[in-house]
Amino acid sequence: MGSKDSDLSALSAIIRSRRSIKPNLMDPDKPVDPMLLDTLLENANWAPTHGLTEPWRFTVFTGPARSKLAGFLQGLYQVLTPAHAFKQEKHDKLGRNPLLAPVVLAICMQRGTQSKIPMLEEVEAVACAVQNLHLSASAAGLGGFWSSPPILSSPEMKAFLGLQEEDTCLGLFYLGWPKEGVSIPESRRSPMKEKVRWF
Ligand SMILES: Cc1cc2nc3c(=O)[nH]c(=O)nc-3n(C[C@H](O)[C@H](O)[C@H](O)COP(=O)(O)O)c2cc1C
């Protein structure tokens, strides 16, 4: 097998074994080495980007900053959710999850005011960056999980993250080592041939 074939095999294995690992399966006490996190972020930075706008922005929460995030998310949920829709379990989870993962990243799209690139393409570029990050995390044995509760797109969340009005928070990315002995969740996809048409 040539080296290009083995590169493809290795990449295919990483892509197909990447799973969403929720924070409750992560070890909150096992830190992620900042150098490793740096490598993951550097890989995110190599995502494709129309017009080289590089719209991805990440805010990193580690250590006690996660408690601040957790408290803010719970308060935000309380303020933004009408009484009839309020779910105690959701409120609790927003406070719990950031403390279960050693690293939480806010996934943001910086729009800029001069951009000729359609907004959707900027969101797509950020999603490519997150996929680079998630695949790199998987390759390192780390678990990752993209969570996107609706409260994140609120003006209050933007203010918390120091974003401009035209920017968007697209989610939180939880990152951490899977706890010893946990079984990695299974996932499934319907056959690709149902999603491709050939002419
Ligand atoms: C943009 C985006 C947002 C997501 N938001 C959530 C979410 O809010 N809650 C959730 O349970 N999973 C969320 N996920 C993760 C999916 O649930 C997960 O990818 C799917 O179940 C397939 O599992 P797998 O990633 O392990 O293959 C999100 C994924 C993406 C790409």
Please explain how this structure is put together.
There is one protein chain. The chain has a single domain, classed as NADH Oxidase (3-Layer(aba) Sandwich), CATH 3.40.109.10. A 4-stranded antiparallel beta sheet has the order 1-2-4-3. It is built from 6 helices and 4 strands, in the order ααβααβαβαβ. With 199 residues, it is of the alpha+beta class. It has helices at residues 3-17, 34-44, 65-80, 88-100, 119-139, 155-161; strands spanning 56-62, 103-109, 143-147, 168-176. Helix 3 packs antiparallel against helix 4 (88-100). Helix content is 42%, strand content 14%. The mean pLDDT is 96. The structure holds flavin mononucleotide (FMN). Flavin mononucleotide binds at residues 19-20, 146-149, 171, 187.
Quickly list its features.
single chain, 199 residues, alpha+beta, NADH Oxidase, 6 helices, 4 strands, 42% helix, binds flavin mononucleotide
Helix and strand arrangement:
Layout: H1 3-17, H2 34-44, E1 56-62, H3 65-80, H4 88-100, E2 103-109, H5 119-139, E3 143-147, H6 155-161, E4 168-176
Antiparallel strand pairs: 1-2, 2-4, 3-4
Helix pairs in contact: 2-5, 3-4
Flavin mononucleotide binds at residues 19-20, 146-149, 171, 187.
Distance between the termini: 31 Å
CATH top level label = Alpha Beta
Instruction: Please list the strands of the largest sheet in the order they lie side by side.
Output: 1-2-4-3
**Helix/strand structural class:** alpha+beta
| Tally of separate domains | 1
Largest sheet features: 4 strands, antiparallel
Beta-strand portion reads 5-15%
* The CATH homologous superfamily: NADH Oxidase
CATH topology (level 3) name: NADH Oxidase
Radius of gyration of CA atoms, rounded to a whole number: 18 Å
Count of DSSP-assigned helices? 6
CATH architecture classification name: 3-Layer(aba) Sandwich
